[in-house]
Amino acid sequence: MLKSHSYNLPPLPYQYNELEPYISAEQLRIHYEKHHNSYANGANGILNSLNQARISDIDINLKGMLKELAFNIGGFKLHSLFWKNLTPAKKSEKMPHGEVFKILEEEFGSFERFKEEFNKAAVSAEGAGWAALAYDGEIKKPLLMQIEKHNVNIYPTFKILMVLDMFEHAYYIDYKNDKSKYVDGFWNIIDWEEVENRFRN
């Protein structure tokens, strides 16, 4: 019998109302309970179908299933990263420190220049996607990623330090179609300690 494992929602590191006024309790609850959970369920359903096909020796549309599996696993994993790089505004240090601050200053020239480029990457993400700060340990360089969907334009093996969800489901209740205002609010609730931990580990 093949082993059966499943993806489960990680607990949020704060209460639903603790990211206000930048992300409302209603927005966060729907985003987490409905959308993040749908990616977990989607991935689990496909894994179960693959498992059943192997047990019963049934031919399947493997190409289509793997494409859908990558989308759902990508959505699940990116959301899990997203929740953890957020923190209530009263706890956010508003700027990075330590090694992350140094590498951003070295690469972008200033923290403000990094913010400007990150904002542009976020707002111009096509349709549904993510803006991310990643790090290539091979060349010791931080790079921006503009991820489409959950799994396109990702740099393989790069360490993801920080992500911002740019799907409409992440901001529409609070900001309607004003993506720029949503992105501006993001800078008030970043957990830079978590970003630093990801860089170091």
Textual characterization of the structure:
The mean pLDDT is 95. The protein has seven helices and three strands, in the order ααααβββααα. The longest helix has 32 residues, at 25-56. It has two domains: 24-84, Fe,Mn superoxide dismutase (SOD) domain (Helix Hairpins); 98-200, minor pseudopilin epsh fold. It has a three-stranded antiparallel β-sheet with strand order 2-1-3. It has helices spanning 25-56, 62-84, 98-108, 111-123, 172-175, 179-186, 192-200; strands at 129-136, 141-148, 159-165. With 201 residues, the protein is mostly helical.
Features of the shown structure:
mainly alpha, 201 residues, SOD_C_sf, Helix Hairpins, 50% helix, 7 helices, 3 strands, minor pseudopilin epsh fold, three-stranded antiparallel beta sheet, 2 domains
